[in-house]
Amino acid sequence: MKYNYGECEICNTKLVSKKVKQDFWIRGKLVVIDGVPAGVCPRCGAKIVRSEVGKRIAKILESPRKWSKAPIIRVPVVELP
Ligand SMILES: [Zn+2]
After folding, report:
1. What distance in angstroms lies between residue 40's CA and the mean position of ligand 1's atoms?
2. pTM of the predicted structure, to 2 decimals
3. CA 38 to ligand 1 centroid distance, Å
4. Distance, CA of 15 to CA of 5 (rounded, Å)
5. Where are the alpha helices (DSSP H) in the chain?
6. What's the CA-to-centroid distance between 76 and ligand 1, angstroms?
7. How far is the CA of 6 from the centre of ligand 1 (A)?
8. Cα(60)–Cα(54) distance, rounded to whole angstroms?
9. What is the CB neighbour count within 10 angstroms for residue 63?
10. What confidence tens digit (pLDDT) does each residue in 27-36 have?
11. Cα→Cα distances 54→16, 38, 79, Å
12. 59 CB contacts (<8 Å, ≥6 apart)?
């Protein structure tokens, strides 16, 4: 599946097609969606997701039952001193 994401809006570098993790806060809970196809800027790290992919993600986030059995990871929470 090749998709041309074009160039980065910030630094005009050609975006590279990759699968990435995206994190979302839903009602105070952090949810990570893995395997998200995105265009990533190798220079500044900006990420672009196609609207079609964004809609699929929104659908998943709208129905928490779909990910009720997803694996749970522990993450460090660091307070800025
Ligand atoms: Zn960039």
Report:
1. 8
2. 0.83
3. 13
4. 6
5. 51-62
6. 28
7. 11
8. 10
9. 9
10. 888 999 999 9
11. 18, 10, 31
12. none
